[in-house]
Amino acid sequence: MTRKNDPIEALIELMARLPGLGPRSARRAVLYLIRKRTLLLQPLADAMQAVAREARECLNCGNVGTSDICEICTSELRSNGLLCVVEGVADLWAMERSGVFRGRYHVLGGTLSALDGVGPDELRIPQLKTRIEAEGVREVILALNATLDGQTTAHYIADELDGLVTLSSLAQGVPIGGELDYLDDGTITAALNARKPI
């Protein structure tokens, strides 16, 4: 058993704060890292130090990288008039994993939420309007989560950008390979309302 001020215990407590890890999972992960000290622990520590030193938010879109302007924003191939608005960097990375979207992104940094006191000024909506004019954006794709806050944010942005640019949103409904029995009521409702002729 470790003492309270022990560095191992401190690491376990820090790991337990990570999403998806509780105290027991964190303890198992730390014990595994200690057993694989040379192979994993030291390289992980070095990588974390490098990220802590070099990671920064893109001044243009809000993505996370190691330069002031990310590779997506500097790519001339992506300067095609398409701008995809997402809630957070994790959503941007999910879109990139699909490899389908070849435009640029704009990270809002959250969604509107009256309960949490998040208004339009706390999000990157003013920067979005500036980018539309500066980059010659023709279409803005609202790729926000299908939650109440996400949809409220999408409606607010749509009102703000009305007449400035073409607006679209991701289709919502049954995922490919999804079985109706496993879907929640909101997903089934969205799928039914977004139905299209065959």
CA(first)-CA(last) distance: 64 Å
Query: What's the Cα radius of gyration?
Result: 21 Å
Mean of residue pLDDT?
90
User: Would you tell me the structural class of the helices and strands?
Assistant: alpha/beta
Helix coverage percent:
40-55%
Topology, number of strands: 6
Describe the structure.
With 198 residues, the chain is an alpha/beta fold. Helices cover 44% and strands 11% of the residues. The protein contains 8 helices and 6 strands, in the order H-H-H-E-E-H-E-H-E-H-E-H-E-H. A 4-stranded parallel beta sheet has the order 4-3-5-6. The protein has a two-stranded antiparallel sheet with strand order 1-2. It is globular and about 60 Å long. The N and C termini lie far apart (64 Å). The mean pLDDT is 90.
Task: Record the SSE blueprint.
Elements: H1 7-15, H2 23-35, H3 37-54, E1 56-57, E2 64-65, H4 71-74, E3 82-86, H5 89-98, E4 104-107, H6 125-134, E5 139-142, H7 148-161, E6 166-169, H8 185-193
Parallel strand pairs: 3-4, 3-5, 5-6
Antiparallel strand pairs: 1-2
Brief sketch in words of this structure:
The protein is α/β, with parallel strands linked by helices.
Question: What are the salient characteristics of this protein?
Answer:
two-stranded antiparallel ribbon, alpha/beta, 8 helices, 44% helix, 6 strands, 198 residues
